Amino acid sequence: MINGCAELIDKSYLERAERLGVALLCDGVKKSGLEISNCGCMDAGIMPVDRGMTMVGTALTVETSEGDNFPIHLASYSTSSEGYVMVIDGKGYLGKAYCGDLIMAACQAVGFQGMVVDGYTRDRDGNIELGFPVYSRGFMPNGPIKKEEGNVNTEIICGGIKVCPGDLVAGDSDGVCVIPREHIELVLSMAEEKLAYESKRRRTIEAYGEAKKNGTELPQLAPQWVLDMMKDRMG
Ligand SMILES: O=C([O-])CC(=O)C(=O)O
Ligand SMILES: [Mg+2]
Q1: E strand or H helix that includes residue 214
Q2: Which residues are 158's β-sheet partners?
Q3: Buried b / exposed e along 33-46 (16+ C-beta atoms within 10 A)
Q4: Which domains does the chain have, with CATH numbers?
Q5: Is the CB of 122 under 6 A from ligand 1?
Q6: Which end of the chain has fewer CB atoms < 10 Å from its terminal CB, N or C?
Q7: Is 190 helix (H, G, I), strand (E, B) or coil?
């Protein structure tokens, strides 16, 4: 089944997500109390091809299996709009690579923000040279087959996480997370609260380091919640 693409996510949301990064976005899911498996994080087997690759965009989904990359070709040519991340449910198949730097270059030329593959990719060096963010289970020189049309823009599972066309997908050195489209605003605001907490913590840690260096009185290093928990548990 080949469906049209979901509407692109508002740029202001993407900019906020980019500023936060994947770990804080997952913290935002946790703080929001939403019942989302693993806080929206794909499993740790799905990693960036190169450290420092980052992406944020709107999910365009592909479902395929057994190393068949015909559906990936169909998805690549299904839009000319900039801003999608291609999320490929390859069923974790590890016998063949689903794609390499040729398809990746085509996706980059179209304006995809990146690609996530539940399976292997190849042409690692070429991929890094392109600077196109790709997240996969690793590398396999054995190339793909071209067979079935698969599904484009249907609900899929990738890296253990449900992904619907139009969801927010973010990736960085830590991995990939998915925020359901209907919860983007809530998750971003929760993640921004966590960011504010972390900034405050960083200032406290810095002040402690400075005081230690200067031989002045040390400020309290432990956060208040640790002190409260210690009192509760240890009296
Ligand atoms: O040859 C293929 O179909 C996959 C590949 O390596 C590429 O896209 O560069
Ligand atoms: Mg190739």
Answers
A1: helix 184-214
A2: 161
A3: ebebeebbbbbeeb
A4: 11-188 (3.50.30.40), 192-234 (no CATH)
A5: yes
A6: C
A7: helix
Of the bound ligands, which one is closest to the alpha carbon of residue 102?
1
- Judged on CB neighbours under 10 Å (0-12, 13-18, 19+), 22 is buried
The ipTM assigned to this model is 0.97
Ligand 1 atom nearest 122 alpha carbon: 6
The mean of the pLDDT values for the chain is 97
Residue 54 Cα to ligand 2 middle (Å): 22
pLDDT score of 234 more than 90 = no
Burial of 82 (0-12, 13-18, 19+ CB in 10 A): exposed
Both tokens assigned to 23: 């770990």
CA of 99 to the centre of ligand 1 (A): 5
163, pLDDT greater than 90:
yes
Centroid of ligand 2 to alpha carbon of 142 (angstroms): 10
